[in-house]
Recover the amino acids of this structure.
């Protein structure tokens, strides 16, 4: 089997998803040069699991006029409280993994210092194998707790499905998330912007069940 280039992989994947679905490239294992190749191939959304890589890539992109301003940064991994302020200062478009009032409060304070409104997604824990995320039955109460945070905006929901042998097994979790998305939109009195579901193995199923944002990594580089 011929290995496709990053550019070919990007073209193939983008060509197979609806135009209104945002693809975030999960770059956890990518080099700076590979990330530049992604951006040069039409990827405008980059997802990071660590502050250190996010900072390194931002500095690398900003140091060249060819790359500066070409990509939006998303934080998609578990965010430690002591790194939250730094991630906000780096200019994250979305912090996708907010799952505690403590973390949300730190983000809100950092955003206030920067004079911005920080967009976040609430990470929902849809299965017991996951360590992080707000339990579905606690989501409404959690959103109520965020009401007083004036420099933070809940822009949507995110989940990480369980690792299984069959991608189809993730479908029930995505169905649950779509229902929570609709309930949360009604609760907040506004339509949420993002439902971030699905990764390399199951992003097509996630889209079928209503995701308008997917986080794809491995298949971009294979």
């Amino acid at each position: 089997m011929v290995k496709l280039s990053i550019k070919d992989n990007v073209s193939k994947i983008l060509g197979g998803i609806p135009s209104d679905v945002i693809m975030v490239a999960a770059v956890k294992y990518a080099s700076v040069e590979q990330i530049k190749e992604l951006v040069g191939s039409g990827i405008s959304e980059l997802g990071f699991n660590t502050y250190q890589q996010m900072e390194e890539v931002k500095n690398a992109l900003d140091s060249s006029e060819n790359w500066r301003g070409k990509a939006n940064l998303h934080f998609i991994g578990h965010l430690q409280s002591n790194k939250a302020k730094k991630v906000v200062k780096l200019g994250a478009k979305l912090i996708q993994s907010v799952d505690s009032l403590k973390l949300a409060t730190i983000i809100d304070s950092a955003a206030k210092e920067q004079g911005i409104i920080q967009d976040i997604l609430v990470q929902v824990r849809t299965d017991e194998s996951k360590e992080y995320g707000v339990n579905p039955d606690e989501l409404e109460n959690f959103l109520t707790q965020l009401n007083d945070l004036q420099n933070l905006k809940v822009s949507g929901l995110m989940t990480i499905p369980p690792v299984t042998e069959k991608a189809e097994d993730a479908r029930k979790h995505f169905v649950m998330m779509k229902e929570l998305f609709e309930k949360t939109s009604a609760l907040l009195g506004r339509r949420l912007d993002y439902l971030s579901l699905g990764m390399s193995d199951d992003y097509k199923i996630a889209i079928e069940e209503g995701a308008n944002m997917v986080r794809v990594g491995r298949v971009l580089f294979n």
Q: What stands out?
A: The helical segments are 6-15, 32-40, 51-62, 81-89, 101-114, 139-145, 171-188, 203-208. The longest strand covers residues 152-158.
